[in-house]
Specification:
Chain lengths: 232, 396
């Protein structure tokens, strides 16, 4: 029987949070000295693989991992097939952040989504589109459609795109923020009802591995043991 | 040992059909289409996939959250059709068949796709329906209602109720109040949701949450501009032009200062007072008790001194219908699509004590124009969910 494979974020606050959480659950992760991205859990039949947090959802989906700790925002954004994976614990209590919509401060007539839907129509009538830079096209598109904002174009973005409106390649951004400082520093303001998603670290897993009536407390050791038992 | 890969499951809320179902659906579909063609409607077909833009323009965004949308391999944003109407108009319009001289009657059948985010509706189903272009007369409305009930009769379904409403009557009532069109549309959309647990208070709360009441004009303080009922718009425009230039520095994106100024003025002009909105909502809710009786509806309008030719139209439509037994007047039937402008109807089947909507239709005169075709001679039609009907026939 193969070992159970747990995927953890390899860097950043999410990585530290995950290791701390495991420690608090009396699970000690031993890193292999020679290979930076591999490890195992002492006393359990579990391998640990450290991965970029943007890859973890896909790796569990494609079967390269069994369990993963990942931001809920990334999970819902990157998840392709809702049948093969599942959220086991959605609130691990760290890595909290919000995905928010922000527009230029100069748009003094815009505070709410209803304003945005007007602006989108106004631009549309001029033959232009409301351009929004984001790394989360799926979540943002769904959110805007639900909110009745219909005309917009999502501009794909990578790191540090808060400056997109200043640089001129987008009108607005939808990005993850914890404190809102970067947004304010870039002459932007958060749309008041424009919180697209509230995220925190979550435990996800392959659906086929998860037994019915799995312990719903946050005792990770118990959960992993139940999954190990179920597998055999 | 080689491992067998996991089998693939069917998508959620889609269905596989066995031979019996296939036959019943095909037969039902053929029955309705041949009935329609015996009444002068010619069959046409359109692609299942169209540019997303077509459907979004049609429904003004209302249906966009139900669309199956994706980029095709050439990078064009496309959607699976959620119904036929927009495609039919596009097809006839592109062929220049929509002109104000001739009337045109077409029918169609085939699968449509809607992403219902619940467990009670299938996300793909077959529709059969027809469209009638080129008549604004109430005779056309009566004809379409008769066609719908005639089709049902051919299918052998009994216990049918056709509930007929009229958007024009509601608009006549609302025209009596000082409301911008956005608020009127909102109220008509909400009206259909009204029941024991959804009334005045809930509608007002929702309007507040969507900033329909009084708008949100707080930012005007920052611009040192005060607005009241007697304000002179010309003066506000001047003040805005001066103050905006001063206040705005920083990126504007695709917008210009002029755009912002225009929108602020639009917001000031179209703001709604709570009193007007409240009164309009109460007047609208007052209609509910009168449903079913044209006489009472007439009295209601007269007592409020509101003129309505649309109510007279509704009377003429009902008068012109030949199968009156299953018709009920119900102004709550507004359908959640913003493009209907006159008569609208839902067709219900009484299944034990549950009523199921199996189809509906109405008049949408403005739609060809909204889709870019100059055509002002009237458009209306109806469609059935033939899968649902076949299921009921099978169960019988």
């Amino acid at each position: 029987m193969n070992k159970l494979r747990l995927l953890l974020p390899s860097e950043g606050a999410l990585s530290e949070g995950a290791l701390e959480l495991l420690e608090n659950n009396n699970i000690s992760v031993i890193k292999e000295k020679s290979r930076k991205y591999l490890g195992y859990i002492q006393g359990m039949d579990v391998d640990v693989l450290f991965q970029r947090s943007s890859d973890i959802t896909e790796e569990v989906e494609s079967g390269n991992g069994d369990l993963g700790i990942v931001g809920l925002d990334r999970y819902f954004e990157y998840r392709k097939n809702s049948y093969s994976t599942k959220v086991i614990i959605e609130n691990l209590g760290f890595g909290k952040a919000k995905l928010v919509l922000a527009c230029p401060n100069s748009w003094i007539d815009v505070s709410y989504l209803s304003d945005l839907s007007d602006v989108a129509i106004q631009l549309r009538n001029k033959g232009m589109d409301l351009r929004i830079a984001t790394k989360y096209p799926k979540l943002v598109r769904d959110f805007l459609k639900q909110a009745g904002v219909n005309y917009f174009v999502l501009v794909s973005a990578s790191g540090g795109f808060e400056a997109a409106p200043i640089l001129g390649y987008a009108d607005m951004i939808a990005d993850i923020t914890v404190t809102g400082t970067t947004i304010r520093d870039n002459d932007l303001k958060i749309i008041k009802d424009g919180i697209v998603f509230e995220s925190q670290a979550s435990l996800i897993g392959k659906k086929s591995l998860i037994p019915e009536g799995l312990d719903s407390s946050k005792d990770l050791k118990k959960i992993i043991n139940q999954i190990l038992t179920n597998r055999i | 040992m080689e491992k067998t890969p996991q089998p693939i499951e069917i998508l959620k809320q889609f269905s596989d059909k066995d031979q019996n179902s296939v036959n019943v659906i095909k037969r039902s579909s053929d029955l309705v289409e041949s009935f329609l063609s015996s009444r002068g409607y010619v069959s046409i077909d359109t692609p299942i996939i169209e540019k997303t833009e077509l459907f979004i323009r049609k429904a003004s965004g209302d249906i966009s959250s139900q669309l199956y949308t994706f980029e095709d391999p050439e990078g064009v944003l496309v959607s699976l059709r959620p119904d036929f109407t927009a495609s039919v108009i596009r097809s006839l319009g592109n062929k220049r068949l929509l002109n104000d001289k001739d009337s045109l009657k077409v029918c169609y059948s085939g699968p449509v796709f809607r992403f219902f985010n619940d467990d009670s509706n299938f996300r793909q189903f077959n529709q059969v329906g027809c469209e009638f272009f080129g008549s604004k007369s109430t005779k056309a409305d009566s004809e379409v209602i008769d066609l719908a009930s005639g089709s049902i009769e051919k299918l052998g379904l009994k216990d049918i109720e056709i509930r007929v409403g009229h958007i024009g009557v509601l608009l006549d009532l609302l025209s009596h109040f000082d409301l911008p069109s956005r608020s009127k549309l909102f109220l008509i959309n909400e009206f259909r949701l009204v029941d024991k647990s959804y009334g005045l208070e809930e509608i007002l709360n929702k309007a507040k949450s969507q900033n329909l009441l009084n708008g949100n004009l707080n930012f005007l303080n920052e611009l040192e501009i005060s607005v009241n009922k007697t304000n002179d718009i010309k003066k506000i425009k001047q003040e805005l032009t001066m103050n905006l230039e001063k206040k705005i520095d920083g990126p504007l994106g695709s917008r210009s200062i002029e755009d912002i100024r225009e929108r602020i003025i639009e917001k000031i002009i179209s703001r709604t007072s709570f009193e007007d909105f409240n009164e309009a909502t109460i007047a609208l809710l007052g209609l509910i008790e009168l449903n079913g009786s044209l006489e009472k509806l007439n009295k209601y309008f007269k007592s409020r001194n509101i003129k309505t030719d649309q109510l007279e139209r509704l009377e003429n439509i009902i008068e012109g219908v030949s199968q009156k037994d299953s018709i009920v007047i119900d102004l709550n039937v507004t359908r959640n699509l913003a493009y209907y402008n006159g008569m609208v109807f839902d067709i219900f089947y009484e299944n034990f004590d549950k009523s199921i909507t199996i189809g509906g239709g109405g008049r949408y005169d403005e739609l060809p124009n909204n889709l870019g075709y100059q055509f002002n001679s009237g458009a209306l039609g109806f469609a059935f969910n033939i899968d649902l009907i076949s299921e009921l026939i099978e169960k019988k």
